[in-house]
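fold-stage: in
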Amino acid sequence: MKFLLIMVVILSFLTAIFTAGYNDKPGVNKK
């Protein structure tokens, strides 16, 4: 159960960063 919770947190964190990066500069591919 704890592993699932950690996965959800990491997934949401990555999604937030990905969305922020996309919204910041959609034309530039930044990694």
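fold-stage: in (second)
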Amino acid sequence: MLRTFNVRLGCNYESASDCSHYIVREQGLLLTQLMSMNVNGVFNMNEVNNKVLMQTHKLGKTFSHGGTQQHVLKNLDLTLYHGDFTIIMGSSGSGKSTLLYAISGMDKPTLGEVLFEGKDITAMSNDQLAIFRRKNCGFVFQQIHLLDSMSVLDNVLSSAFLVQKDRAGAVEKAKKLLLDVGLDDSIWGKFPAQISGGEAQRAGIIRALINSPKAVFADEPTGALNSSAGIGVLRVLTEVNKQGQSIIMVTHDLKTALRGNRILYLQDGVVIGDLRLSPYSENSGPERQQQLQSFLTELGW
């Protein structure tokens, strides 16, 4: 019976308990989809978004230092949803960046599963994972990773040409996106050493967005920028999110966190707080900050 189950589903489970875990997981996904439908069976995206983007099951990450082991993530069960601007917060060493890298496929967890739209990315080979990331994920880091030997425009196109067959269309799209973030044609031909940190970070964001990824992962994207440049980066990410792309961002900054509509708080590798906020707008009043501040204070932030 177990062999029949594996053959029909293309799985490789070794025990009945593993099969049971699979069935429960699939039932949960189906229930989540049903919850996001109205009485006529039509998805209503204007209500709370229940369409699952990612799930983790018993996710763990352990680092070895000499003869000791550090358990950074501990049996995390987490669900992320399409269209959310999810903020990951926590004290230094709580596992924020480790979690971001694990769920984005940039690093392999020690234990557990990461499902992206139902696909277990932890079971993928390195080559499969690289292709998956190019098509589905965008990455924005605190440290700018533009290639020094390439112009701003070519840096953006370096990602596009790996995925998109229409090169002329990719060039036009890149130019439009760069213009949208205030980088005009006077910048396109310059090299990273010739532009400011804020300009380089915006170019990095466009490189992350050029393939229209389903999820954008950002690790302290404003941490190395001055105030005005940081606000510019956040505006870009907020606008992208309004257009339907999912953002998962690590930050320790309260004002940056206000951009999110969901706040996850980590402590010692475990999510101990989960706050839902209304979608951000430039006119959001002080009550939004008070709500977030109270949430964080209760958790010992």
